[in-house]
Amino acid sequence: MSGMSDEEAARHRARMIKRKQVQDAEVAAKTITEKGLLIVHTGPGKGKSTAAFGLALRMLGHGRRVAIVQFIKGAWQSGERAALARFGELCAFHALGEGFTWETQDRARDIAACQHAFEVARGYLADPDVALVILDELNIALRYDYLDLATVLAALASRPPLQHVVITGRNAKPELIAAADLVTEMGAVKHHFAAGVRAQAGIEY
Amino acid sequence: MSGMSDEEAARHRARMIKRKQVQDAEVAAKTITEKGLLIVHTGPGKGKSTAAFGLALRMLGHGRRVAIVQFIKGAWQSGERAALARFGELCAFHALGEGFTWETQDRARDIAACQHAFEVARGYLADPDVALVILDELNIALRYDYLDLATVLAALASRPPLQHVVITGRNAKPELIAAADLVTEMGAVKHHFAAGVRAQAGIEY
Fold first, then answer.
1. pTM for the complete prediction?
2. pLDDT range class, residue A99, cuts 50, 70, 90
């Protein structure tokens, strides 16, 4: 790190000038300047919902409206919910799930909860003033056929053109991935649960 | 979805009761109830820094202190920065990078910026009142040898035992992954840049 010669410094600079030209050309080649993105966070790793909340934070920082609908998680108090309350009416938060399916043990109740959540989501998906809609754990609801996939895809397709949507949850349906603009697969490389460590406040909830 | 028979409903319930027993046993088997986690978000996909900001939000919602040090990104205004300002002194935010290496084109300046950022980070890594420290893009600084890996690992190892740390950036060093409790690899399945769409306010920045 120390002891870099003038020659090395010059070589570094030349490489970086070339790299900047490539970057600038790539940016210039992108001709669509504004578009509402359909974003999917899937995979077995951590960070799917957490990254969605990070996007909420970013959008709220731009002073734009955000709506969050949780399809599986119930109404228990969570850190992100308390934090987002600071943004008042700029951020709507609906925890409409009844908990995980193995907590409720009642499929009919799970279906009813998901369908109610989707009706709430639909309202936001029709409102161009909402810049970002987060449909948290919607993939779980789709996987268990608690919601009709075609109905969900139609609602997404007919939303305002500049509205961004983030859908989270494992096992995203191939049809949803096909419709999406941006898909990230969170892979679990290593997990503290395997080492006998419980869920931590501020990390898991 | 409709037309579920009583028999089907009962089968679902029985499956879910069994699943809950498995889940409860797994939770009970975890004997470490509180531990500061070393978390790494790496991989080529989106969401590494964003998920770290989501964790910041969650921790702030619990009323605990958070410190964020950005090693590469510069002092330009970003959505998350404006949003986190709402939390006042609970959240410290230092954007100490000089921008991407191909923007500065000056390796000596990049190294000096990273080393200054690490000195700031060290202060938080010694303060047990800080519940979460985010070292954003530290992996980039390590990859280009802007910081000494052994020095960084020693500072992480000697931090307060209940303090959580998140380190982001592509190409995490194997030694860092070995030291970590939780590692998520963000994989890029699909990206709107490839379809000619530019970075969007509230999503990329």
1. 0.83
2. low
